[in-house]
Design goal:
The chain is mostly helical and 250 residues long. It has a single domain, classed as MFS general substrate transporter like domains (Growth Hormone, Chain: A, Up-down Bundle), CATH 1.20.1250.20. The chain is 76% helix and 0% strand. It is built from 8 helices and no strands. It is flat and about 55 Å long. About 2% of the residues have low confidence.
C-alpha cells in the first residue's frame, strides 16, 4: 500500500519485514531492467559480427516483442488482482485468470495460423479496444455482481477473460511470421526479448499498481499494444514473401 515517496520515509512502527518489502520490490524492478539491457541490447551494440546487425529496422521488430511481453503480463496480473475481490480469495482469482487466459491464448495461437498476417494491426486494435472497455466500463461494475453465487461469479469471470485471452494469444505467432518476413535470424532474438521483458513486467506491474492503481496497470498494458500498432504499420512488411525472396534469405 506504500508509494514510491514512502521508500525514503518508512514507518518505523511497521514490522521489519514490511519495511523491507518496498525496497526489495524496487531493487528487483531495477535489477530486471538492467538485466534486460545487458542480455539483449548490449550484445547488439558490442557484437558487430551478429547477423541481425544487418537487418533493416531490427529494433522495431524487437520492440514489438518487448511490447507484447510487457503488455500481456500487465493485463493478466491486473485482472488477477481485480478479480480477487470479485471471487473472494487470491487463490480463486489466480486459478480462474491463469486457466482462462492461458487456455484462450493457446486457442488464439492455434487459430492464428488461419489469419492473414495483414490482419495483425486490426487484432492489436481489437485488444486495445477490449482492454480499454474492460478498464473504463467493466472494472468497477463487477462489484455490483457480488450477490451472484460463487459458480456464477466464476463463469462470468471466464466469459470476461476468454475474448481477451483469445486475442492476446494471436499476437506472438503472428509477430513471428511478421519478423520472418524480414529475416529468419530475428526469430531467436524475438523469443529472447519476449521472455526477458515478460519477467521484467512481473516486477513493473506491481510498481505501476502501487503508485497508480490497478486500472492504470491495465491501461498501461493496452498502451503497449497501441504502441505495437504504430510499430507494425510504420514498419510494414506484412505481405507474404515471394519464393525468390525466401531463397535469398535462406
Amino acid at each position: 500500500m506504500d508509494r514510491l515517496r514512502d521508500l525514503w520515509h518508512p514507518d518505523l512502527n511497521d514490522h521489519p519485514a514490511r519495511r523491507l518489502a518496498l525496497p526489495i520490490l524496487y531493487f528487483v524492478f531495477a535489477l530486471f531492467a538492467v538485466l534486460a539491457v545487458l542480455t539483449v541490447f548490449v550484445p547488439l551494440w558490442l557484437r558487430p559480427d551478429l547477423a541481425i546487425r544487418g537487418i533493416p529496422r531490427r529494433t522495431r521488430y524487437l520492440l514489438y516483442f518487448a511490447g507484447i511481453g510487457i503488455g500481456f503480463m500487465l493485463v493478466e496480473i491486473s485482472l488477477i488482482h481485480r478479480l480477487t475481490v470479485y471471487l473472494g480469495h487470491p487463490t480463486y482469482s489466480f486459478v480462474v485468470v491463469l486457466f482462462s487466459i492461458l487456455l484462450a491464448s493457446g486457442a488464439g495461437s492455434l487459430l492464428s495460423e488461419r489469419i492473414p498476417l495483414a490482419r495483425l494491426p486490426a487484432i492489436l486494435a481489437a485488444i486495445v479496444a477490449l482492454v480499454g472497455v474492460t478498464a473504463l466500463a467493466v472494472y468497477d461494475q463487477m462489484t455490483t455482481l457480488m450477490w451472484l453465487s460463487f459458480p456464477w461469479r466464476v463463469l462470468s469471470s471466464v466469459a470476461l477473460l476468454l475474448p481477451i485471452g483469445l486475442l492476446l494469444g494471436m499476437c506472438f505467432p503472428l509477430g513471428i511470421r511478421w519478423a520472418r518476413q524480414a529475416h529468419d535470424h530475428l526469430i531467436p532474438w524475438a523469443w529472447a526479448v519476449n521472455g526477458v521483458f515478460s519477467v521484467f513486467a512481473a516486477a513493473a506491474s506491481l510498481v505501476v499498481a502501487i503508485n497508480f492503481g490497478l486500472r492504470a496497470m491495465l491501461l498501461a498494458g493496452a498502451a503497449c499494444y497501441l504502441a505495437n500498432i504504430l510499430l507494425v504499420t510504420r514498419t510494414g512488411s506484412l505481405a507474404p514473401r515471394s519464393a525468390a525472396t525466401q531463397a535469398e534469405a535462406a
